[in-house]
Amino acid sequence: MTQSPQSPQPPQPSQPPQPSRAVEPAPDEELLPATRRALHHRLAVVQAEGRAPSVVAAVVRDGRTVWAAGRGEVPQDAGAAADVQYRIGSLTKTLTAVGVLRLRDEGLLDLGDPVGRHLDTPHGGEATVAQLLAHTGGLAAEARGPWWERTPGDLRPELADVFGEEPQKHPRGRRFHYSNPGFALLGALIEQLRGEPWFTVLRREVLLPLGMTRTTALPVAPHATGWAVHPYADVRQPEPAVDTGRMAPAGQVWSTAADLAAFAAFLLAGDDRVLSADTLAEMRAPASAPEPGDWDTAFGLGTQLIRRRGRLLAGHSGSMPGFVAGLWTSPEERLAGVALANATSGVRAAGLAADLLDLVAEHEPPLPAPWRPMPDADPELVALTGTWHWGTSGYVLRLHAGPALSLTPLGGVGRGSRFRPGPDGTWLGLEGYFAGETLRAVRGPDGSVSHLDLGTFVFTREPYEPDAPVPGGTDAAGWR
Prior knowledge:
- This protein has helices spanning 33-50, 78-81, 91-105, 129-133, 180-194, 198-207, 248-251, 257-269, 277-283, 349-363, 379-384; strands at 54-61, 64-72, 86-87, 227-229, 236-238, 254-255, 297-299, 304-308, 311-320, 323-330, 335-341, 386-390, 393-400, 404-409, 417-421, 427-429, 438-443, 449-454, 457-459.
- The protein is α+β, with helices and mostly antiparallel strands and 480 residues long.
- Strands 12-13-14-15-16-17-18-19 form an 8-stranded antiparallel beta sheet. Strands 2-1-11-10-9-8-7 form a 7-stranded antiparallel beta sheet, sandwiched between helices.
- It is globular, with a radius of gyration of 26 Å.
- It starts with 32 loop residues before the first helix and ends in a 21-residue tail after the last strand.
């Protein structure tokens, strides 16, 4: 699987190859034989019909790799196959986004900051950090010619060389327009604020803490050769694999199925050494409007989002000459799928990654976590639970471990939300209409709870309770 001598390659880094990490699950975590057979069959079909020299794939469940395999010109041992490097293309963007969100969480920037506040750039400086992450900065889709994915990065040594004659294609913030140069700016932003090369920061702050020792900027053996397969004949030729320089944060990285499985596990649950689960949830929330007629796809902060069979998948696809990649996570099912192939086109790596999730969910739907009572609970919070009314609409307030509160409309029609504790006994809304709004229990002169105030909405124990401060008052004659 080492690179063909016919294929031009950048020099390999000096560090020796790292040993393969085990990817086989513990016996009590293995998939059922029928599930494994279905996964192997899907992998084989995709490799054969896509005419890919090799395909590797993996499935993550509850934070562990529960299945991995390779097909074609790749070792048939699961661990060896999962240790072969492939170029991951735009999956690099999600890694770059993690680096940017770390800067935000440390207080070094705000997502609403114009990039030009932190970085001297000839173009794109008025776009905010969030707009570049979500591809709404209006910048051109591609770098200045020639085709950046197949030409050395030293053709663009400065940021100014990244942009063509018309760098701004759309007004900032008006629409989604995928931009590779936008992520070149984000990589330069990381370098500016950290004072080190982009990949040096990424390796230290993201890759090594997650155990991704086989993820590199340049290929390290064993790695696959990138191939262009003829569309009408069973022949092929090697693709160039160049160091893309300033464009590297948009698609440079090489990785393995084992490393990407570790990254997928992180995207599902978080790791406080890198990013919290709350920040990762923010990354996979839609941050831009989808294209008209394409309401099943959207984009978060450095993550692609798709709706598939009633659930939201978050991850990213990737392609570079000779390679395609895909990684999707299903947070609700605690599942992730990874697929890599070494062909420029023909094989649907991202589709395969999603297919793997479908198969596991179909054959082995996830078991809910067992219910357990809270270890302790504030009696005053317990007393708040039960039925409340906004006007004549009924709601149920429940207390959960954490602690956390949830407000659910009776009958399932209305606005609900989950809440987490805020300062001074208040609660912060986490979703829907009440996201970011404050819930507080308002007490009367005797210390008892008079009503709930949720963003000025008054909730009372009874509909239009006479003694409660219902806006506009209640009729003195009462119900009749």
